[in-house]
């Protein structure tokens, strides 16, 4: 005689955790609690933050369970982290410093650095200057050839790059108008339509979308700001895109992976496991084919923010 299959709810308890598990009699067995997933705010697809998060995941598959949340960039990431919508976020250091030093938000200083990463370069993109002759045959250059030529002009930007644009404006003393857009696509459309005179983006080179720009229409402008005016926020860097202007002087800002000062044992363990694995896999991150070339600039030693310990 066949006995009917009975499904019962079994309460599994430990000293600190109770979970409800469904089992089929008479084969009821204890089930482990589901893994703890942590959400991570990166940046749009194709960004250095998104690619580097992917790379860490490939070498640290069993360290922790993390889910990517692609965003518009550092400003949104910081707001999500402070708003308890994610557990980790890739954030430009100037965005974090601005929230702390300029906005005087006390919550910013409470954040902790899980990993210090690479320096992303400031890309200033403008229509390629044109040569024109007047009626007397004299040749003149029409269009911007460097940052200081943007006096009185409009510069489009988005996400964390908007903070960078504001810092550069304040540090340089150059009067220009910053126009904020929702994302990269809208900013580049505005540049193509002549609604802004340049577009500013902080992104790790080589960025695929920068390489895809029409070299006949666009050029990269040098940031001709004395380093003494931007010390403490940026360090000198060089852009190398042969088709757009190789050897273009600019500045770079560090990107760091940030978290909150969590205290729950499970979350702390997940974060520390992820941190430990990444710190121990730097050589693999630098030498695995197909990984982002920015890994070759990472040391995990350069740091200007308190560590998560």
From TrEMBL:
InterPro entries: TRAP_TAXI. The keyword Signal applies. Gene3D superfamilies: Periplasmic binding protein-like II (3.40.190.10). Keywords: Signal. Residues 1-32 form the signal peptide. This is TRAP transporter substrate-binding protein.
């Amino acid at each position: 005689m066949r006995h009917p299959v009975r499904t019962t709810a079994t309460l599994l308890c430990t000293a600190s955790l109770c979970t409800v598990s469904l089992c089929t009699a008479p084969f009821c067995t204890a089930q482990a609690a589901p893994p703890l997933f942590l959400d991570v705010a990166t940046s749009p697809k194709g960004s250095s933050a998104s690619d580097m998060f992917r790379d860490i995941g490939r070498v640290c598959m069993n360290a922790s369970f993390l889910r990517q949340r692609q965003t518009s960039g550092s400003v949104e990431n910081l707001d999500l982290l402070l708003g308890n919508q994610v557990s980790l976020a890739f954030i430009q250091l100037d965005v974090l410093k601005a929230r702390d030093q300029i906005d005087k938000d006390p919550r910013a200083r409470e954040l902790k650095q899980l990993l210090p990463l690479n320096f992303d370069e400031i890309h200033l993109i403008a229509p390629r200057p044109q040569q024109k002759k007047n009626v007397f045959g004299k040749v003149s250059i029409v269009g911007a050839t460097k940052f200081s030529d943007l006096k009185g002009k409009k510069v489009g930007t988005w996400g964390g790059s908007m903070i960078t644009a504001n810092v550069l404006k304040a540090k340089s003393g150059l009067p220009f108008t910053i126009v904020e857009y929702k994302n990269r696509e809208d900013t580049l459309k505005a540049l193509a339509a002549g609604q802004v005179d340049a577009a500013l983006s902080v992104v790790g080179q080589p960025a695929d979308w920068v390489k895809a720009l029409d070299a006949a229409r666009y050029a990269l402008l040098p940031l001709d700001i004395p380093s003494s005016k931007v010390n403490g926020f940026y360090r000198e860097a060089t852009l190398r895109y042969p088709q757009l202007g190789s050897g273009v002087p600019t500045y770079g800002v560090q990107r760091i992976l940030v978290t909150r000062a969590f205290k729950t044992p499970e979350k702390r363990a997940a974060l520390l496991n992820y941190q430990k694995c990444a710190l121990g896999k730097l050589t693999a991150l630098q030498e695995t084919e197909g990984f982002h070339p920015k890994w070759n600039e990472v040391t995990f030693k350069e740091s200007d923010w308190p560590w998560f310990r």
